[in-house]
Each structure stands twice: as C-alpha cells, then as structure tokens.
Amino acid sequence: MTKPLGSEDLSDKPGERVIDKPELPAQGITNENDATTETVSGQLQLKVGRAGKFEVYCDEPARIGGTDRYPSPMSYLAMSIGF
To answer: Running DSSP on this structure, what letter comes out for residue 28?
Structure first.
C-alpha cells in the first residue's frame, strides 16, 4: 500500500481542502499536531501551551489555588469542541 498523504503533500492554497475533492486518496491522509504544555514557575496554577507559532495561557479559579486571570483547562476543552 502507498504511504498516506501528509501535510507536506497537501495544497497550501488558502481554503483548498483535500476532503472537498470528489474522491479521497486510497492510501488515506495523516495529520500531525505538535503541542507542548508547561507550568509557569512561581505563578501558582498558571500554565502555558504552545502549538506552532501560537501560545495560550490557562489558570484556575482562586478557590482551587489559581488567580483566575485566564480560562481554566476545562474551559479550553469545552471551547475546542465548538471549534
């Protein structure tokens, strides 16, 4: 079987998606998403996540040791379902 198509094989034209083609490739398509997360030292419950050129912060409510400056991890999870 032929290797699945990866990001490097797909079009970089804005808005062009392989899933909109009349027939998907028989070998399939792969998709990779790399992300890292870490706690911010000395900042209670503050955490930072990075994916490519993007960076997001999350925190926890004061009642569980955070400062409530950013959305909680569960808020990000709930928002991701909508995206």
So the answer is: -
Which amino acid would we find at residue 56?
Answer: V
- pLDDT tens digit string along 41-52? 999 999 999 999
Residues 5, 27: one domain? yes
**For residue 22, what are its two tokens?**
């009349």
Count of C-beta atoms within a 10 Å radius of residue 61: 11
pTM for the model stands at 0.66
CB 67 within 8 A of CB 45: yes
Same domain? For 39 and 66 the reply is yes
Based on the fold, state whether residues 67 and 83 are members of the same structural domain.
yes
Q: What H or E segment, with its residue span, contains residue 83? A: none
